[in-house]
Amino acid sequence: MQLNSKSATNQEPVGPPVYSKGEPSRSPSPAKSGDSRLPAVEIQGLRKVYRQIIAVDDVSLVTYRGEAFGFLGPNGAGKSTVVKILTGLVAPTKGTVRVLGQPINHIESRRRVGYLPEFPSFHRWFKARDFLEFHGRLYGLRGAVLEKRITEVLEMVGLSGREHQKLGTFSKGMLQRIGLAQALINKPDLVILDELVSGLDPVGQRDMRDLLRELREEGTSIFLNSHLLADVEAICDRVAIINQGRILKVGAPAELFDKRRVFEVRVSHVTEELLLRLKAVALSIEAQEDDPSSLQVEVQRDEQAADIADIVYACGARLYTLAPRRLSLEQIFFDTIDALKPGN
Amino acid sequence: MGLLLITRFTIQEAFHRWLLLAMLVLNILLLAVFALMLNSAYSIQLANAPNHSDPQLFLLEFDIIISILSVWAAYLLSGALTIVLSINMVSGEMEANTFSVVVSKPLRRAEIIFGKWLGYALILTIYTAMLFFTFLGLIYWRTGYFPENALPALGMIEISTLVLLALTTLGSTIFPTLVNGAIAIMLFIGAPLASFVQLITASQGQTTQNITTFVNLVIPTDALWHGASYYLVPSFVFSLVQERGLLFSLNTPFTSIQPIAPALFAWAILYCIALPVGGAVRFQRRDL
User: Fold this and answer.
1) Domain segments of chain A: what residues?
2) Third-level CATH fold of A260-326
3) Would you tell me which CATH number, out of the four given (3.40.50.12640, 3.40.50.300, 3.40.50.1000, 3.40.50.10420), belongs to the domain A30-254?
4) Do A122 and B104 touch (CB under 8 A)?
5) Is the pLDDT of residue A28 over 70?
6) Which residue in B has a C-alpha nearest to residue A104's C-alpha?
7) Torsion region of A69: left, alpha or beta (phi above 0 gives left; psi -120 to 50 gives alpha)
8) What ipTM was reported for this prediction?
């Protein structure tokens, strides 16, 4: 894959401070190039009101060059509105937004941005190659450079050999792929993706995540909107959780999603002694209502899994399952919202 | 440069839609039927001509009438194509969500509007000119008559087409496709009301004159048609009819005894420019 190589100078952090309302931001991956502390997206005090409906309320955040940033939230949280503002499709009611150091209506900075909307819809009469040629030309690409790039991006998204097929005959997954191809046709410095894997089968999802990881490794900044935890965990260096138009938390996925170490324990039989001994090492224990031989055991450290196994063995029970349980996105939201309530 | 890309895209898209192809096929059929009817009608006229006191004038009267009616048909067909082709210029893209990946590209929104406008303007003006000259060409082929001021007449009809395109351009940035189409059709069909009102105006005074002016300001297509029809009548015919005191007979809802007023013509030109500009301004501020 041939993408823009980013310069590798070691600069001190520049630009405005991190505006995150939640936890302090973590530095992007050291694999990123030296300009990684230059902001890719800067949002400050952003507010968007559609008539009387507040879609986005006082959102502030900064993402950095070379960083893959996830914007995570349920449907209707305001994610897509933020993305549409970033891409100039929607005007903010209040606040300032800068992309690659420039205001959002700056034409030249848009040449360095690629965008894939949610549920991409394209003109069905276009053939794949013509479609990419049109979008490449909109970015100012011409001639042999454009031809070469079209071939490259078709290969990158797994659509080689489909050049002369009309988009009207494409499956939903193929449309997603060609949509990503048009977002990458200009070798963007920043790719903005609104719901990456909607419409893709599992193989397609894996391919797209691999492709984005590859882009990230090459230094491309990524802003990924998603309601899928798996997407942002697989790709992103940092994540912001947004709900009801407000950012609840910003941090690395590991910080946000792995705070609680909960193990799912299934044994041959649960005894009073087993429960007593587990309580001595666990922060909490929950019995499963539908399965009396299963327990949810919360501990402080991952290493305590070994303690749990020892206790089960010592109590004469057989251990069938001892698996870390990941919190669902819903649980993370509820935990985050609960944590923000007064008194917590 | 973005503007020309959008123009090219618009033209490509128009040719990929069945609508344009269907219109072209139907037009060919219509012209074929017209040619047959013209041939038949002119044969009858030729046969009847010797029975009239002035056979030349009798045939010329037929030539003029058939020219005006055929150009009127071209005007209507051109107007119809303008409406059906361009009512979804912007609204259709927004309804289909196909604009997201275009508007986010490094080009100004005004370039999208003017690029699309230019694409449709090229298609429609070429279509109108082809239809205009094909009708008049068929008449010339059969009768040997060709209006002496055909080009100014074509100019009026082309401007009328652009007026309608300007209306749909602005409308498509404000209204959904169906509403825009309904407005354009109602105005285009309703515009000749001004002509009927104008007929009465001479005897009814200032109020009806004001109504006529108002209608012409809202949609100057019919005024432009009358301007075109004026150029389709040879100048000596006006003198001849005036000598006989029958000039009023040429003042009908379809024909005019005077060219379009300069102020109204200037307004029509301004209309063609101002409405797309208004559309661009509206689109610039619109959330997608």
Assistant:
1) 30-254, 260-326
2) Alpha-Beta Plaits (3.30.70)
3) 3.40.50.300
4) no
5) no
6) B104
7) beta
8) 0.84
